[in-house]
Each structure stands twice: as C-alpha cells, then as structure tokens.
Amino acid sequence: MKKRFLLLWMLPLSLFAQQKNVVQYVNPLIGTQRMGHTFPGAAVPFGMVQLSPDTDTLPYEMNGKYNPDVYKYCAGYQYDDKTIVGFSHTHFSGTGHSDLGDFLVMPTAGALQLNPGVATDTKTGFRSAFSHANEKAEAGYYKVKLDDDNITAELTATTRTGFHQYTFPKTNDAHIILDLMHGIYNYEDKNVWTFVRVENDTLVTGYRQTAGWARTRTVYFAMTFSKPFKEYGCKDFGKKQVYRGFWGKFNQTKNFPDLAGRQLRMFFNFNTEEGEKIKMKMALSSVSTEGALLNLRTEAPNWDFEQTKAAAQAAWNNELAKISIEASEAEKQNFYTALYHAFLGPTVYMDVDRKYKGLDQNIHTAANFTNYTTFSLWDTYRALHPFFNIIQPARNGDMVNSMLAHYDQSVLKMLPIWSHYNNDNWCMSGYHSVSVIADAIIKGNTSFDAVHALDACVTTASHSNYEGIGSYVEKGFIPAEKLGTSASTTLEYAYDDWSIAQAAKKLGRTDIYEAFSKRAGNYKNIFDPSVGFMRARNEDGSFKNNFDALSTNGQGFIEGNTWNYSFFVPQDPEGLINLMGGKKKFSARLDSLFTMYLPDKYFAETEDITRDGIIGTYIHGNEPAHHVAYLYNFAGQPWKTQERIRMILKHQYKPAPDGLGGNDDCGQMSAWYLFSTLGFYPVAPGATVYQLGSPAINKAVLQLENKNSFTVEAINQSDKNVYVQKVLLNGKQLEQPTITHEDIMKGGTLTFYMTDKPKKQ
C-alpha cells in the first residue's frame, strides 16, 4: 500500500520535471544557414564565453577591398559548409557585422600542419571535414566528429570558461593547435600583439590585442590541459619586423615558454590510446591573466566534463522555464530556441572578482551590479530590452547600470551606440540607449540612479558634433548634405527624443519633457505630402531630387527604403495617420506594404536585406519596420494586425537551420517572435502600453521576478483561427486592443477567444 502511494505521489513530480526540462526544445542550429548568423556552439545564459565551431577563414578584405563573402561568417559558422577549421571562444549571435573569434583550438592527429588549408581539400591543412549526421547542438553543449582524423570534439561552458573534450584514436602524433591568428572579420593587421607564457606542462597563459570593429580590444586567457603535453612549439606567420631586439639568441619555435608576436600559431603534442579523452579548459578575462586564472579556478575547478555540461544545461533550464507554454512540438522548438537566442546576450563583462577593463582602458570594479557588454542597441531597443523588463528586469537594470558606467568612463560623455569589449564601435544610427533607459524608468525598473541616467540621456542627445545632431536641433531635420542617412536618422532621433521626454515626465523634469517633446515632432519635417513619403531634405529645405520610394540605396535611409521607414513614428501613430490622410488611406498604405512586390534590384547593394526576409515590400529580416504590423490597431482595423502577425510568424520563423529570415541581431528577431507569439508587442518602448495581436500558442505562463505569474490563453487558437473574437483580462472584456505593463506585472490571466473570421466591428 505504501509503495503504491509512493508511486502515485511520484507520478506528478516526474511529469512536472519533464515539463520543466525545456532544454530539449532548444535547437541552436536554427538560424545557422543563410541569413540568421547564429552560432551552434556552447554558452550559458548571458555568458562571456561562446565556444563554437568556425567553418571557414575568409578575410575581411581582398586586394585592398571589402570581401562581401565574409558577411556569411559573422558568427563564424555556416550550415552549408563541409569543413571545420576549429573552435574559438567568442562569437556574436546574429549580427550583420562582426569581430571576435578569439583563441581558436583544433585537435588533429598525424603529420603536424599549422595552416588551416582550403575547404576544397582538407588535406592541405589542419581543418577537417564533418557531417551534420555526426553533429549535435544543444543549449550549453556541442558535439561533432572530425572525420579527417577520427576525433570526436565536445564543448561546454561556464560563464567565463570554455571546456573542451577531445576523444582521440591511438597515435603518437596527437596535436592540439592553438591558433592565435584566427579571427572573425579578420585581416592581416588586425592582430596588434600577442603574448604567451607556457607556465608548465599543463598551463598556458597570455593575451592578444586586436584592432577591428572594437578599435582597442585586449583579451587575456588561461588555458589548462588534463594531461601533460610531451612537447610544444610555435610558428610566427607575421611580417618580418624591422626591429626584433636580441631574441634571436633563442630558438623560439620549439619548447620555448616566452612567446610574443603578431601572428602566432602554437601546437601541443601528445601520445594517446584508442578512445583516450584529452580535456582542455580556457578562461577569458579583460583584466589580466591572473584574472583569467581566477575565473578558471573558480568556475571550472575540476575535470568533470559531464558535470560542467549538466550545470550549463541546468542554468539554461532555470532561465527558459520562466515561461512555460502549451503548443505543438514544432512551436515549442521555435519558442524555446527564440528564448535561448534572446538570453545569449548582452554578455557578462567582468571577472568573478567583479573587475573589468573600462572604456577608459583602466580597471574598474562593478561593486553593485553585473557589468554587461555587447549592446547592439539599434536592434535590441525595439523588443529585446522591453522583453527583459518583463522576464529579466534585474538583469536589464544591470544592463542600464553598465551603460551608465560606459557613459561615466567616456571622454566624449556619450551613452553607448553599439558597444562591445570596452569599446564603442559606433555602428548604426540613433542614440537608442536612451530608449532602453527610458523604458526601464517608465516601467519602474530602476535599480540605477534614474536622475543621473536622465542627465546622461540629455547630454548624449545634445552632442552637436555627432551624426548631424547640431543641424537636427537647429533645423528640425538633418540635411542630406550632412549625412548619407539623414532621413532615417532624423526619424530615429525624433523617437529617441520622445522616449527622453517620457522619462523626464516620470521624474518630474518639466523643462526636459517640454524641450524633447518638441524635438519628438521633428519627424513631420521630412514628410513630403507631394509623394506621401518620408524624404531626405537638402540644407536649403528643399527635398532631395531623384526620389525612389523603393530603393534602399542613396535615398537617405539606413538598411531600408522609405516604404518601410515612412511608418517609423512609433511615438505618434495618430499623428502619422493624419499626415498620410486619415485612417482609410493609412490602412490602404499598410496593405500595399505587405502585398506589393519589391524587385531584387532595389536592395542589391544592401547586404543586410535579402529575399529571405521580405514579405511584399515589408522587410521583416531587418528591424526598422518590426512594429508596423501592429499599426493597423491604430487605424481601427485590428483584425489586419492579427492576420499579418500570424502570416509573418509562419513565413519568417521555422524550426530548421534556415529558420530565420534575417540576422537575429543579438536576439531582436527572436524577441519579436516571442512577443508576437504571446499576443502582445511594445510598439513604442518608453510607453507602458502593449498592442495586442494574435497569440500563436494555446497557453503560456510567465513566471515573473516579483513572484507573480501572468497567463496568456488562446481559446480555439489554430493555423486557421488567427482572428480575435474577444479578449478578457482577469475575466473582464477589453474594449481596446491594448494592455499595460502594470497589467502584466500584477499577474493575472489574459484570455483570447479565437475564430476563423475577422471581427470588423
């Protein structure tokens, strides 16, 4: 009787455990083919290390010119490739430009080769053929068989350490190559300097400094082997230096422990038995090799690979289980992989003792917050950071603190534009850190000094010599003569200024609120009523000639055309509707956006836009129009928002390697999917209102950090039933297709009743 009772008691627990094991639905290979630019390797949530395979070594430039083929390798890995050159420790997820690829490691057997060779003939170098049939990618774990030398590679990670496990055949010629030349978006002079110390027969430390997207980036490492190497060596592939001092006294190519140069590759030799596993751990630091060693010994103190893998996957389960869903198996793969991609970054940027190298190149301590980097803000302010304000508010508060630390260390006194590794690479337009900060302030997520944050926003937005801000303030628009992206940047500044105004209003700063509310109306200054579109203006106030509404090139817009950018007024949809002639004409314009055809020639010169991410003339594979499908709500046609959202979800997201229609852009594409699948979206971050769409799952429960839970139900939801008949919030029917941030954070239930017929009244 007791035994039977025990079994009955255990049954729901086992079902509960199975429900919480959501790692099984994550497929890191989604987005690794074509335009997604994701990586399949091992990382923990928001981890500093992203240990992943790189499948080629294309240079950033050829014959002094940009090599467009390198664009495919922003994440180091392309699914269609047949070879792997090694496993490097740092990667961006989903970006349209790149850097990193630090400290590539490759196990080999047989004759030693220190060149990667070419993909068409793996025998020319240390690269190896591989097959997807012998590849496994999971959250926190990656495994592949390297066919050329019959070596199985397995990878896992902690926050700051990459853990390798290589299973070798029997040989007296086993090698582990450490390629210190390798990099993503690499070029001949990118490595400024590299230093290596062989401390003993299992421990190696060092650093390298690079000058790429991040102009001044130094990464330190500590690398240790589970087995002593029998010998080691180095080859310097760099140009002959004019002055080399008196180091010629030593043979630095073999068993020499003090190495330095610009283009180094090292090898470590072993004897192995059949099936013997050699393990290797590499920890990173921005501060010192001492910091890297501390990270290594703190986070990965033993050689138990399976234990480290289990800990990584437990960390993922803990984060991913913050949302539980009822959906099809395919939709669970889509959902939890999107959540996984959303939680890859921004990335932790400090050692376990909380030290990090700052923008001023000095060492700082993040005493009261976790310091983060990898802020792709032109992308992520739209949905990723608003998503964090619901699901990861503590982390998002720390991210704002990190932005403020960047500002405090900046000699220019500017918040980050696009920052990584104590550098601002100044990529893209706008000053969207102000949107992230304002959204946090408006939603009450202020584990930072909100007054200082508002001052930083105002100072950043007042930098008259940055990207046309002076002209923008003086004229109300940026002249085309001043900036190639004058029209889109004017629109972006106007939105950012509105978000500053909202934060100022919340904090009682009426002067700032009034000044920036006025600036937020500058979008009207580039609307040309004669053509009905946003249009670049000249210094004298005239509109720029040779207008082409479809072209993404030379029209004053960045990575988009005016068909998409003319809807970029998230702060004032009602005002935009009036400019465009009222709700009827506005809705017809939206219809055309989604249905008319955009010929390839109009985006041929814009590599971030491809056919994969285009629906009609709407470009979902790039970010500027991500809010646009929700604008039908403002035009009084919410059923069209519902229809378009479900169409975009089906068209742009699927559980396959080519399952993303564009760059995931550090989680923005995934965050759009997450919000839209749940049935609501932040059209204007900096406001507390979310627009309702059409939920694509049966049920979701959001476990909030304040201990409340928010449930979304979609009754009768299906691929056919995409229209919303009615919506109840805690049993009370909503009159408008909106909910507020407070509604979510208080907890409760949002119930959609779905049908196959649009409700037009």
Q: Explain this structure to me?
A:
The structure is a single chain. Helix 11 (486-506) packs antiparallel against helix 12 (510-520). The protein has a domain at 23-319: Distorted Sandwich (Beta-galactosidase, Chain A, domain 5), CATH 2.70.98. The chain is 27% helix and 22% strand. The protein is of the alpha+beta class and 761 residues long. The strands form twelve sheets. The chain has a nine-stranded antiparallel beta sheet with strand order 8-9-10-11-19-15-14-13-17. A six-stranded mixed beta sheet has the order 20-33-34-38-35-36. Strands 6-12-18-16 form a four-stranded antiparallel beta sheet, with no helix packed on it.
CATH architectural arrangement of the domain at 23-319? Distorted Sandwich
Strand content: 15-25%
Number of DSSP-assigned strands: 38
Tell me, rounded to a whole number, the average pLDDT. 96
CATH topology of the domain at 23-319: Beta-galactosidase, Chain A, domain 5
Percent of residues in helices comes to 25-40%
Question: What composes the largest sheet?
Answer: 9 strands, antiparallel
Radius of gyration: 27 Å
Task: Extract low-pLDDT stretches.
Answer: 1-19
Taking strands numbered 1, 2, ... along the chain, how are they ordered across the largest sheet? Answer: 8-9-10-11-19-15-14-13-17
Structural class call reads alpha+beta
Distance between the termini: 60 Å
CATH class of the domain at 23-319: Mainly Beta
Q: How many helix segments?
A: 18
The outline comes out as: globular
Signal peptide: 1-17
Domain Glycosyl hydrolase family 92 N-terminal: 25-285
Organism: Niastella koreensis (strain DSM 17620 / KACC 11465 / NBRC 106392 / GR20-10)
Keywords: Calcium, Signal
